[in-house]
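2024-03-11 09:14:02 INFO worker-7 job=invfold-0412 stage=load source=structure_tokens
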């Protein structure tokens, strides 16, 4: 039984490696479509939608919102289930295990946000949370592609760190990116979440009640002013642990929903003018520096502080650059960073600048992590030969 978490994590990493490649491909397709002769059709498909407005019911969704609001709720459902699993039986199950990645994640959130605010100043400061996020799928996907060049202990540390990052991102979305809050709808949503929690706790498994209750929970959050994807997180916390269910949902999330999100949201037009605007934009520069520089600095700095204060044990090193490589991997913000950028900025031009910066920073962070891990492996091999 003690070996099950190890095998589960290895299976998780293999799956993340494949989904990471698919995510990169979907991003490339989105960028291609946005810059191809069919770009107008691409935009029209994303803008197409429907609206229902009666005295008792209101729902307005475009193709983009169906992906960002509805399908991404399933993504956050998986995130909620992963967080719950880690807290109950995983790498965050005990205080001793959780302290080191918690402190590292705290540094990996505070320093990027601080760098962004210093660079951007007052205007555009609402986007401070964009470089805070880490994309678990891509970060672990990059490490999975490196194989045994990255120690299992370091992969487990990054997984725990990324999960805590997700908790931080979810909290930030709830607290700072909610608008026109409706107490009635929010209270109704919380009652629905409580009902589902009790329903699951007593062992009931009626699919009809689960589906209807989940849709009602989502609709309450949609109407409340809090982003409806947070309904997925609450449902993930409420649902009982099931490896079979989580594996199926994780497959759909990683191989369908997240690539669709990239296809719909990463499609930015690349022209001489847009490149010039990105290079001159404080917002883009702040996001880029926050992810590429702020993430590794924050993780290393806070890990060292925690170790010096004696309140945490740093992860077992696997070479001179192992922690720096881990910090660079955490700088792969991508999915959640782009998601937050859509909440932070309302005008399309600023959203495109932010998305461009996130993609560029994530790619460079991935490359740096791979180079550092490879250098680590070479140095370790040379040391073993000398011995």
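2024-03-11 09:14:09 INFO worker-7 stage=emit residues=387
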């Amino acid at each position: 039984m003690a070996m099950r978490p190890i095998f589960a994590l290895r299976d998780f990493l293999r799956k993340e490696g494949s989904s990471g490649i698919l995510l990169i491909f979907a991003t490339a397709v989105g960028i291609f479509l946005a810059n191809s002769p069919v770009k107008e059709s691409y935009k029209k498909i994303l803008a197409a939608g429907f609206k229902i407005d009666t005295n008792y019911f209101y729902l307005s969704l475009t193709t983009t919102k169906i992906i960002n609001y509805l399908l991404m709720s399933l993504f956050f459902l998986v995130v909620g289930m992963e967080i719950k699993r880690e807290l109950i039986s995983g790498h965050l199950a005990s205080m001793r295990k959780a302290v080191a990645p918690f402190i590292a994640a705290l540094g990996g959130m505070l320093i990027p946000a601080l760098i962004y605010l210093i660079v951007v100043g007052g205007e555009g400061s609402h986007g401070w949370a964009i470089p805070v996020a880490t994309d678990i799928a891509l970060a672990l996907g990059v490490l999975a592609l490196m194989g045994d060049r990255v120690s299992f202990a370091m992969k487990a540390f990054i997984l725990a760190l990324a999960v805590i990052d997700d908790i931080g991102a979810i909290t930030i979305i709830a607290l700072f990116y909610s608008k026109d809050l409706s107490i009635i709808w929010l209270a109704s949503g919380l009652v629905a979440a409580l009902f589902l929690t009790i329903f699951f706790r007593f062992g009931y498994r009626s699919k009809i009640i689960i589906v209807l209750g989940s849709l009602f929970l989502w609709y309450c959050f949609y109407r409340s002013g809090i982003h409806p994807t947070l309904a997925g997180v609450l449902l993930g916390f409420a649902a009982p642990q099931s490896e079979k269910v989580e594996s199926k949902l994780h497959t759909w999330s990683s191989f369908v929903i997240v690539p669709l999100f990239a296809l719909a949201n990463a499609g930015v037009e690349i022209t001489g003018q847009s490149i010039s605007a990105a290079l001159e934009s404080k917002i883009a520069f702040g996001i880029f520096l926050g992810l590429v520089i702020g993430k590794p600095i924050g993780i290393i700095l806070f890990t060292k502080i925690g170790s010096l204060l004696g309140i945490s044990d740093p992860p077992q090193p696997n070479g001179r650059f192992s922690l720096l490589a881990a910090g660079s991997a955490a700088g792969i913000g991508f999915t959640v960073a782009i998601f937050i950028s859509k909440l932070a900025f309302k005008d399309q031009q600023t959203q495109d600048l932010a998305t461009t910066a996130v993609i560029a920073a994530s790619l460079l962070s991935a490359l740096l992590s791979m180079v550092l891990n490879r250098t680590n492996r070479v140095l370790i091999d040379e040391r073993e030969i000398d011995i």
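2024-03-11 09:14:09 INFO worker-7 stage=report msg="The CA atoms of residues 199 and 205 lie 8 Å apart."
2024-03-11 09:14:10 INFO worker-7 job finished
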